[in-house]
Amino acid sequence: HVFLGFTKCGQFLLSYTHSCDTDDHTLQMIHRYRLHWWVFVPYAPLRKVAEVMLFGDQDLQESIYDNIFISVCQWPRDLSKILVYGCSLVEGSDGSMSQTRRVYLTITAVPSLDNCSACCQVATSYEDE
Questions:
Q1: What are the backbone dihedrals phi and psi of residue 90, each rounded to the nearest 5 degrees, phi first?
Q2: How does pLDDT run across 63-111, given as a tens digit for each residue?
Q3: SS3 letters across the chain
Q4: Cβ of 55: how many Cβ atoms within 10 Å?
């Protein structure tokens, strides 16, 4: 887990995980990123309550072939969602870093701590990991 920070409300710690697979057609590495939401209570163990696949379903869209820099931000007056931003420089054919950037965005809702019973079952299933 890579630590991203806390939400403005201070209730959640955010982290992401990164995994790689090989594309069978191009033999290139495909990078996948997942955002993890953890309830933060001082002096208590973190408890994961949600996770989100970042930057869409790469199986249906253009795959991410580069390792990317990820940051997160929230709107000043709307704490109900966050924006996760990823970018990378694209390597030129001569091996130098070109000025072209690939940018990836995900906007996702902040999980509710007052979940329905079905949502609570999903959140408690993360404790099995």
A1: -95, 130
A2: 666 677 888 998 888 888 899 988 876 665 665 555 667 788 889 888 8
A3: CEEEEECCCCCEEEEEEEEEEECCCCCCEEEEEEEEEEECCCCCCCEEEEEEECCCCCCCCCCCCCCCEEEEEECCCCCCEEEEEEEEEEECCCCCEEEEEEEEEEEEECCCCCCCHHHHHHHHHHHHC
A4: 22
Of 77, 74, 57, 64, nearest to 14 by C-alpha is 74
pTM of the shown model? 0.75
Indicate the residue type of 106. Answer: T
Tokens of 67: 């390792």
Sequence-distant (≥ 6) Cβ neighbours of residue 53 within 8 angstroms:
32, 33, 34, 35
From 61, 15, 78, 13, select the one nearest 39 (Cα to Cα): 13
